[in-house]
Design goal:
By secondary structure, this protein is an all-alpha fold. It is built from 5 helices and 2 strands, in the order E-H-H-H-E-H-H. The two termini are about 10 Å apart.
Length: about 170
């Protein structure tokens, strides 16, 4: 069963902050735990980013670039046992979402960028501890950097083109 997080989360920024702290404390030698925590963080970051995009044209433009990177990162993580969490990556905001003030949207983007920096560092360290760098770590290291770069305006990408039908974890 896949759970849609956007219907259960009252404060995506608090959730993302908690996941970021959990990831920072995760033992990098436990690759599975690291990947599972990055998946949860990606779900939280996606939800926070969608709220920010709904609040501001500046964040909306950057979210369009970030969306393709988020999807690519989710694909990489889904290949490596993380779909087992049962947590879906939100494809859009729920219809009843309340608009955020600009300050909260800015804080959400800062939380996403912070999560990306932590995820990149922990994934890199996990890779260094493996006998041979695994694809399960190499791709996500680069993608977390690109995701942060999308939100800071340093990376522009292509718009997301979802496969038909979309994966069950993209809701």
């Amino acid at each position: 069963m896949t759970v849609a997080a956007d219907r259960q989360v009252k404060d995506p920024c608090a959730w993302l902050s908690a996941v970021t702290h959990e990831l920072a404390d995760a033992p990098p030698a436990d690759t599975r735990a690291v990947l599972l925590t990055v998946w949860d963080g990606l779900a939280a970051a996606r939800l926070a980013g969608l709220h920010a995009a709904a609040a501001s044209p500046r964040w909306r433009a950057r979210q369009r670039h970030a969306e393709a990177v988020e999807f690519d990162l989710a694909v990489q993580l889904a290949r490596n046992c993380t779909v087992g969490t049962g947590l879906a990556i939100p494809a859009r905001l729920p219809g009843a979402a309340v608009a955020w003030p600009a300050e909260r949207a800015d804080a959400a983007v800062a939380a996403v960028v912070s999560f990306c920096g932590t995820a990149e560092a922990v994934l890199r360290r996990a890779g260094e501890l493996t006998p041979v760098w695994e694809d399960s770590l190499l791709g996500p290291v680069a993608l977390t950097r690109w995701l942060a770069d999308c939100w800071t305006g340093r990376h522009t990408g292509c718009p997301l083109r979802l496969p038909v039908p979309p994966p069950p974890w993209w809701r």
